[in-house]
Amino acid sequence: MARKVMLVDDLDGTPAKHSVSITYKGSEYTLDLSQENADRLDDALEPFLSKAAKTGKKRVRSSASDKAKNDSIRDWARENGHDIPMRGRIPESIRAAYENRNEGANTSHAEPYQGSH
């Protein structure tokens, strides 16, 4: 049976739409935020970020929600006769089949926040 992952805003407990990662003073932080709180964070950081130099490339990191989704994909794949390893990269064909299992229904509730500015 597939599991549904729902993120909760870390500030006010409402449903979260975005997972936001921030690195500050050498520490990395992750927040799950509603659109409203993500916009508030964006507005608060904008005067600083508009003057800051970008460094490095964007890194993609796995999160707890990524692991939960991958576990769901693996469970679904096994239940539906796909041969899939317990660990490692999930083949794109299996990911696509999982995403299209209900004619395109999307069970993802969070997307990386790209900002509104």
TrEMBL record:
* Domain Lsr2 dimerization stretches: 1-55
Give a GO molecular function annotation for the protein.
Answer: acyltransferase activity
Provide an example Pfam family for this protein: Lsr2_DNA-bd
Q: Where is this region: Disordered?
A: 53-117
Coiled-coil segments, which residues?
none
Where does this protein have compositionally biased stretches of type Polar residues? Answer: 103-117
Keywords assigned by UniProt, alphabetized? DNA-binding, Plasmid
Q: Which residue numbers delimit the Lsr2 DNA-binding domain?
A: 65-99
Q: Where is the composition biased (Basic and acidic residues)?
A: 64-102
What superkingdom heads the lineage?
A: Bacteria
UniProt name for this protein: Lsr2 family protein
User: What organism is the protein native to?
Assistant: Paenarthrobacter ureafaciens
